[in-house]
Design brief:
Elements: H1 7-59, E1 67-68, E2 73-77, E3 95-101, E4 104-113, E5 116-123, H2 125-173, H3 190-239, H4 246-273, E6 282-285, H5 286-294, H6 298-303, E7 307-311, E8 317-320, H7 322-338, E9 344-350, E10 353-358, H8 391-402, E11 406-411, E12 415-421
Parallel strand pairs: 2-5, 7-9
Antiparallel strand pairs: 1-2, 3-4, 4-5, 6-8, 9-10, 10-12, 11-12
Helix pairs in contact: 1-2, 3-4, 4-7, 5-7, 7-8
């Protein structure tokens, strides 16, 4: 999972990186400039000294230093202590040069002097050591400023994003009604005021849309309940007609069960439309709920030679919304029956997972990740009846609404297993149990 960083952290990091980069660039620039200036200063001092010394030696040859036959020239030292130059200095052209002698950086100036050359040695090591200490101090101060910059960056970023954090807190406290808009007067940044206005407009439109959907769902459910009541009433009256045969009475019972299932679907949809429907959970006998869900499919299962097995204790109960659980079980049974010819459909419960297994055609590996997508339809080899592609998506939506985890395992030609987390009474909110596999 990708880690998310706060806006304050990002602002502080960007500000720190830019400022530190500028400080480092400035420090390196100053260092480079100082070193170049140092070399120019040393060269100027050497040139002035060489001009003065050469003039003095030409005026009075008695002042000349000893002649070094190896270097074919006179060697003079600006310091009191004499310095023995290596023979390789003789190959250097006229001018000022830097050489390393006994671990020290020595400047050597070479100029023509009659038929020979004049060498003069300058030792600026003490000066360069002081210069190096100054440069090191400059870099250390730069490092301290970099640390101070990080501290200041986090402080300043907090001031910059404080109003954004305040806006986020206000958004969290908003409900779904348009009566509590965010007041733009609390913010003084132009961009934030524009964001508040845009959010208020979006919030108002979303709240209005939710109200329209709730009203539409209520109206539709009311209109559906009226014909359903008429159908059930008619079925009750027809059952009292003694002239009807057993076959007609069986059909009437089938119509009555279908009307009852339709009523449960309407109630479940109304429950899902209510904002606090998650609280409408009661203790439901699981085996009874499964038997009731299987009843409408009895003829279809028998016609295809599908045996059902419910290995669940009759007194075992789970916490669930009865109508929502009925829709989930009905869709799972319907989906299993569509992909089976013969075989068996079994129901088991291993706390807190309900496991529904079939011996149908199974699901291809490429289709398994998409079976809960709306309108998605896989096409296995033994596909016998085409569905609409919304049954399992409804199951997924209901499971998400009530916090029921759902897991699917399938193997082509071997069958499918669906596991649904249904906590028993007293377990509180649905929480992850052990993996059913």
């Amino acid at each position: 999972m990708r880690a998310h960083r706060s806006l304050r952290f990002k602002v502080a990091v960007v500000f720190s990186v830019l400022t530190i980069a500028l400080l480092v660039a400035q420090a390196l620039g100053v260092r480079t400039l100082a070193e170049a200036q140092e070399e120019r200063l040393i060269t100027a001092l050497v040139e002035d000294d060489m001009a003065s010394v050469t003039k003095a030696y030409r005026a009075d040859s008695a002042l000349l230093p000893p002649f070094d036959s190896r270097l074919r020239g006179y060697v003079s030292s600006a310091d009191r202590s004499p310095v023995a130059l290596p023979e390789s200095v003789a190959a250097l052209p006229d001018g000022v040069h830097e050489i390393i002698l006994s671990g020290r950086e020595i400047h050597v100036a070479a100029v023509p002097f009659g038929d020979a050359r004049l060498y003069r040695v300058y030792n600026f090591s003490a000066y360069e050591q002081r210069f190096k200490r100054v440069i090191d101090a400059l870099m250390a101060v730069t490092g301290l400023f970099a640390l101070l910059t990080i501290w200041l960056a986090f402080g300043l970023s907090g001031l910059l994003v404080r109003q954004i954090a305040g806006l986020a807190n206000q958004v969290k406290t908003l409900g779904s009604t348009p009566s509590a808009p965010i007041q733009p007067g609390k913010y003084d940044e132009t961009e934030l005021i524009a964001l508040v206005d845009a959010f208020n407009d979006y919030h108002h439109r979303m709240a209005a849309m939710i109200e329209r959907e709730k009203e539409f769902t209520g109206n539709v459910s009311h209109e559906l309940r009226t014909p359903l009541t008429a159908i059930k009433t008619s079925c009750e009256l027809l059952e009292q007609d003694a002239s009807l045969g057993e076959k007609a009475r069986a059909r009437i019972a089938q119509i009555d069960r279908a009307a009852e299932n339709m009523r449960q679907v309407v109630n479940a949809l109304l429950t899902l439309a209510r904002e606090h429907s998650v609280r409408d959970a009661v203790s439901v006998p699981l085996a009874t709920a499964i038997d009731e869900a299987l009843t409408p499919f009895a003829d279809r299962l028998a016609a295809k030679g599908i045996a059902t097995r419910v290995d669940i204790e009759p007194d075992l109960c789970v916490m669930a919304n009865p109508s929502a659980l009925a829709i989930v079980l009905s869709n799972l049974i319907d989906n299993a029956e569509r992909h089976m010819v013969g075989g068996h459909l079994s129901f088991t419960y291993a706390h807190p997972w309900l496991r529904i297994e079939d011996t149908g055609s199974g699901i291809a590996p490429y289709a398994a990740p998409h079976v809960f997508d709306r309108f998605y339809q896989a096409h296995p080899v033994r596909h016998t009846k085409k569905g609409t592609g919304i049954g399992l998506s409804i199951v997924k939506k209901i499971a998400e609404r009530y916090g029921w985890q759902i897991q699917l395992e399938s193997e082509p030609s071997r069958g499918t297993s669906v596991s649904l987390l249904l906590p028993p009474p007293g377990a509180g909110e649905a929480s992850p149990g052990r993996n059913p596999s």
